[in-house]
Amino acid sequence: xxxxxxxxPLGTSPAGWFSEPLPAGAVYVEPHPRRIRAVxxxxxxxxxxxxxxxxxxxxxxxxxxxxxEVGDLPHKPEPAAPGYVVVPWGAVDAWxxxxxxxxxxxxxxYHRVDCHRTRxxxxxxxxxxxLVDTDxxxxxxxxxxxxxxxxxxxxxxTDLLRQSTTSSYCNYKGVATYWSAVIGDxxxxxxxxxxxxxxxxxLPIARHLSFEVGKCTVVADLPDAGGQR
Length: 229
Hints:
Pfam families: NTP_transf_9. Residues 123-212 form the DUF427 domain. This is DUF427 domain-containing protein. The protein has a five-stranded antiparallel beta sheet, with no helix packed on it. A four-stranded antiparallel beta sheet has the order 3-2-8-9, with no helix packed on it. It has no helices and 19 strands. It has strands spanning 28-31, 36-40, 43-48, 52-55, 62-66, 76-77, 84-86, 94-97, 100-101, 113-118, 122-126, 129-134, 137-142, 148-151, 161-170, 174-183, 186-195, 209-211, 217-220. The two termini are 23 Å apart. Strand 6 and strand 7 (84-86) form a beta hairpin. The mean pLDDT is 93. The protein is an all-beta fold.
């Protein structure tokens, strides 16, 4: 979602700026020369290396395919790419890019995750108890998102945490496991999350925890990502 999220260059509140304003509603289309496969009822119904990626302001990026490559799948024309059509994500059972099964939407070639071991301090308090107080952290810089600190569980009062039933998925960090804080008889749901088995680009934060600012008192030594114009 890097180009088209609200803080991306095609978003409504971009973090940076162009030297000259883009025309309203500008759409960016580019070749996406990776093998894209779609499977329905156990049969491959799309198999191409000629897809394009469409980046539309404030919309999730999407594939578009040459019309003769989608067979009888439901589709509609892509106005920004004449001759190409868009197939609804749910029209097939599974999507694959270069052999990797996708969830929710295609990975974005402009989205990057950088994980750096740092000495940035992190303190987390919940209900008057300190869960974390350390400067042995990993800073995650992720395209168009605010920087965030992760911490190894050896620096966390994990005796006060309990795995919840909540989970979510990120194309760049994998499946998130959520943790609730148990303070006496009180349970504060989903105060933290971790990625137990992230993809290679996010391995430095495997099993590390990050904490939800709205549910904990978090004091984090982070750079100001707002910038100045």
